[in-house]
TrEMBL record:
Keyword Transport attributed: yes
Species this protein is from: Flavobacterium nakdongensis
PANTHER family per record: SOLUTE CARRIER FAMILY 45 MEMBER 3 ISOFORM X1 (PTHR19432:SF35), SUGAR TRANSPORTER (PTHR19432)
Domain Major facilitator superfamily (MFS) profile: 236-452
Full protein name: MFS transporter
InterPro entries: MFS (IPR011701), MFS_dom (IPR020846), MFS_trans_sf (IPR036259)
Membrane topology listed for this record: Multi-pass membrane protein
Length: 452
C-alpha cells in the first residue's frame, strides 16, 4: 500500500503523545538526582542509583517493538495499545516517586517509571515509519523533536512555576519539597492526556497482507528474531550505533550528575550530608537546614537552566521542520555539528562557572538533543525492513541503553577522574563524549540515509 503524504496537523497529532513522554523524561532527568540527594545519597552513589533506567530500556524496548510489530486490531490498531499501557503505568509512577521515604523506594519507582516510559516511547518511533513515506520521515522525526523540546522546557521549569504559586520550601531533613510533588503530579496528568490525544486523533494502517501477517506472526518468536537480527545488523546501523553510544553516554552523565556538579561548581551550594551533622544539637540542625535550603534553591536554578536545552531543541526543530517540509536535509552534517556544539556547551561549564553562562551552555546542548532525537532515527528508518520497524527500533536502542549501563556501573565515576577530582569533571567527560560522537559521523557514507 502506497503511503500518502500527511499534513502538518496529522503529523502533529500522531506525535503529540511525545509531550507527555518528555514530561516524564524531563522530570526524571532534572529532579531524580535531587530526590536521591535529599534522601541522603552522596554524589558518587548517584550513577549507580540510576542503573535501573537503562537496564529496563535494554529489556523492554526490543520486546515491545517485537510485540507491536505483531499486533493488529481493527479497533485499537498496532502501536496504540502500547501507548496507553505505558501512559497508565508512567502516570502512576510519576505521581508517587516524589513521595519516596527512602533511597531504595525512590530507586524502585525510577525502575517502574523508566520501564513504563519505554513501553510508550518505542512504538512512537515506529509509528513515524508506519505512517509516513520515506521522503517525509525526516520531517516526522523532527516534528517529534519539536514536541519533545516543548515538553522538556515546560516540565523542567514546572517545579519552579509551581513554587511561584505559593507552595513553600521545606527545611526538613529528607523531605521532598511540596512544590516538587505537585509538579510531578501535574506531569503524570499531562502524560496520560497527551497520549490519549494521539490515540483518539490518529488512525493506523493495517498490514499490507493480513493473511501473510498472521502466518508470519505464528511462525516467529522473539528469541529467534533477536539473534537473527543481531547477525544481520547492517553496517549502517552499527555505524549509527557508535554515534549513539557516545551521545547517550554524555546525556546520561548530564542527567545523573548535573545537579551535584552544578550546584557545587557554579552555585557554590553542594548538598549537605546528614552524617556530617549532629541533628540533635540545635545549632548544627539549624546549620544543616540552612545549607539544605540553599542546595534546594540551587537545584531549582539548575533545573530551570536544564530546561533551556529543551527550549533550544524546540527552536532548532522548528527551523528544521519548516526546512524539511519543503527540501531535503543532510542528516549527517546536521547531526555532526549539533553534537559538537553540545560538547562545547558542556566544556564551557568548567571554563565559565557563572549562572549567566550556564544558560548559554544548555542552549548549545539543546542543539545536540534536538538532533539526537531525530537524525539517527531518520537515517535508520531509511535502511531497515519496514515489516520489522518496531523491533529494529527497539534493537537500535541497545546503543542507547548500553552506554548508560556502562556509565551507571562506574564509567562516569572512573572516567571523570581523567578530568580531575572536581565536581565539574563529569560535565567535562560528557562534553568530550559528545564531540567524539560528532566526529564519528564521518563513518556514515551511504548517500541513501544521509539525504532525506
Amino acid at each position: 500500500m502506497e503511503k500518502r503524504k500527511l499534513s502538518f496537523w496529522e503529523i502533529w497529532n500522531m506525535s503529540f503523545g511525545f509531550l507527555g513522554i518528555q514530561f516524564g523524561f524531563a522530570l526524571q532527568g532534572g529532579y531524580m538526582s535531587r530526590i536521591f540527594q535529599t534522601l541522603g545519597a552522596e554524589p558518587h552513589d548517584i550513577p549507580g542509583l540510576w542503573i535501573a533506567a537503562p537496564l529496563t530500556g535494554l529489556i523492554v524496548q526490543p520486546i515491545i517493538g517485537f510485540l507491536s510489530d505483531r499486533t493488529w486490531s481493527t479497533r485499537f490498531g498496532r502501536r496504540k495499545p502500547y501507548f496507553l499501557l505505558g501512559a497508565v503505568l508512567s502516570s502512576f509512577a510519576l505521581f508517587f516517586v516524589p513521595y519516596s521515604s527512602t533511597l531504595w523506594i525512590a530507586a524502585g519507582f525510577l525502575w517502574i517509571l523508566d520501564a513504563s516510559i519505554n513501553i510508550s516511547m518505542e512504538p512512537f518511533r515506529a509509528l513515524v515509519a508506519d505512517k509516513l513515506p520515506d521522503e517525509q520521515r525526516s520531517y516526522g522525526f523532527i516534528m517529534q523533536t519539536l514536541i519533545i523540546g516543548i515538553g522538556t522546557w515546560v516540565a523542567s521549569n514546572l517545579p519552579w512555576l509551581v513554587k511561584q504559586l505559593g507552595f513553600a520550601e521545606t527545611n526538613e531533613t529528607g523531605v521532598i519539597p511540596v512544590y516538587v510533588k505537585v509538579a510531578f503530579g501535574i506531569g503524570a496528568l499531562v502524560f496520560l492526556l497527551s497520549i490519549l490525544y494521539t490515540i483518539l486523533t490518529t488512525k493506523e494502517y493495517p498490514p499490507k497482507d493480513l493473511e501473510a501477517f498472521e502466518t508470519k506472526k505464528n511462525e516467529t518468536n522473539f528469541i529467534t528474531d533477536f539473534f537473527a537480527s543481531l547477525r544481520s545488523m547492517s553496517s549502517n546501523m552499527l555505524k549509527l550505533g557508535v554515534i549513539q553510544f557516545f551521545s547517550w553516554f554524555a546525556f546520561f552523565t548530564m542527567w545523573s550528575m548535573a545537579t551535584p556538579a552544578l550546584t557545587e561548581h557554579v552555585f557554590k551550594a553542594p548538598a549537605p550530608l546528614k552524617k556530617e551533622f549532629n541533628l540533635q544539637i540545635p545549632a548544627e540542625k539549624l546549620e544543616f537546614e540552612t545549607l539544605n535550603n540553599t542546595f534546594q534553591t540551587a537545584s531549582d536554578s539548575v533545573g530551570s537552566a536544564m530546561g533551556l536545552y529543551g527550549l533550544s531543541s524546540m527552536a532548532f526543530a522548528l527551523i528544521l521542520t519548516f526546512y524539511s517540509s519543503r527540501l531535503k536535509v543532510n542528516r549527517k552534517y546536521i547531526h555532526m555539528f549539533s553534537l559538537i556544539a553540545g560538547g562545547i556547551g558542556f566544556l564551557m561549564m568548567s571554563v565559565l562557572p557563572n549562572p549567566s553562562y550556564l544558560n548559554a551552555s544548555f542552549i548549545l546542548i539543546g542543539l545536540s538533543w534536538g538532533s539526537i532525537l531525530s537524525m539517527p532515527y531518520a537515517m535508520l528508518s531509511s535502511s531497515v525492513d519496514e515489516d520489522k520497524m518496531g523491533f529494529m527500533m527497539g534493537l537500535f536502542n541497545m546503543f542507547i541503553v548500553i552506554p548508560q549501563i556502562i556509565a551507571a556501573l562506574g564509567g562516569v565515576n572512573v572516567l571523570s577522574k581523567l578530568f580531575g577530582d572536581t565536581a565539574i569533571a563529569p560535565m567535562l567527560l560528557a562534553g568530550t563524549a559528545l564531540i567524539i560522537g560528532g566526529l564519528c559521523n564521518f563513518l556514515i557514507t551511504d548517500k541513501k540515509i544521509i539525504s532525506g
